[in-house]
Amino acid sequence: MSDIWTKLVIVASLVVFGFGTGWLVQGWRLGKVVAVEQGNNKALTLTNDTLTAANKRCEINVQDVRAAVKGVVDESAKLTARAAAAMTKAEGRAKSHMSKADEILNRPPVAQPDWCSVILQEQSAYVAERRGLRMELNLKTIP
Question: What is the pTM of this model?
Fold first, then answer.
């Protein structure tokens, strides 16, 4: 009977030794996998941190671009309004000049003895008008 117990103890010892050895090898293998995964985790963490920082910079750049575009759009609207006002003013001046041109072209002919006096009157009116316009322009430019 002791022979059976001895064999049983040997078999049990071999099973325990085999199980322990398998456990140890599995631990080493899993330790290596854990080390590789920790390395991957560090690399992914660095990549994630880099991408997060780049994303924050991108958000700031997008906000800056939006602000700049808004400024350009606002300035464009102001310039458009100023251009429309200038066009309205220019249209008024153009109509005034056209009416003066029509008036000059449609005047009745002047008799020959009165030519000089009519020319002097027209010249005087023109000079007075130009001086008034020049004075108006000078007053607008003086602070």
Answer: 0.44
pLDDT tens for 21-60 read 888 888 788 778 888 888 888 888 888 899 999 999 999 9
CB 125, CB 133: distance < 8 Å: no
Give me the domain span that covers residue 136: 113-143
Domain count, the chain: 2
The residue assigned the tokens 């020049």 is 134
CA distances to 3, 67, 118, 119, 121 from 107, rounded to whole Å, are: 149, 59, 12, 13, 14
Both structure tokens of 96: 């005034």
What gap in Å lies between CA 72 and CA 66, rounded to an integer?
A: 10
Judgement on whether residues 34 and 87 belong to the same structural domain of the protein: yes
SS3 track for the chain:
CHHHHHHHHHHHHHHHHHHHHHHHHHHHHHHHHHHHHHHHHHHHHHHHHHHHHHHHHHHHHHHHHHHHHHHHHHHHHHHHHHHHHHHHHHHHHHHHHHHHHHHHHCCCCCCHHHHHHHHHHHHHHHHHHHHHHHHHHHHHHCC
Q: Are residues 13 and 60 in the same domain?
A: yes
